[in-house]
Amino acid sequence: MRGHNPLLAGLAGRCPNCGEGPLFSGFLTVAARCEACGYDLAKADSGDGPAVFVILIAGFLACFGALFTQFSFDPPVWLTMIIWLPLTLFLCLGLLRPMKGLMLAAQFANRASEARHDGQD
């Protein structure tokens, strides 16, 4: 079942093993097993990686947009806040799930779970 790209499957919220079953059982809760192929998804852990990427991407876009708006059109500060704070929130929430799926799929594609050490050197 390796005829698909696991990174694209993770980005779409699908199982990185088969590309069919859902990767998430909630908004950010990873499913215990893939419904389609039975792959154990519970061992996957993305850590803080997705949040870091979302902060960097959304922060850049929101700051650039707010500064561009402020310097180009010079609206009142309250209008800039009313426009850009909700957009930043929606941008962060919209990016978080795909980034988590992408990070989990990258772990799968690089077999990161096999590289763990049990404290032995």
From TrEMBL:
The keyword Membrane applies. Keywords: Membrane, Transmembrane, Transmembrane helix. InterPro entries: DUF983 (IPR009325). Pfam families: DUF983. The chain crosses the membrane at residues 51-71, 77-96. This is DUF983 domain-containing protein. It comes from the Bacteria.
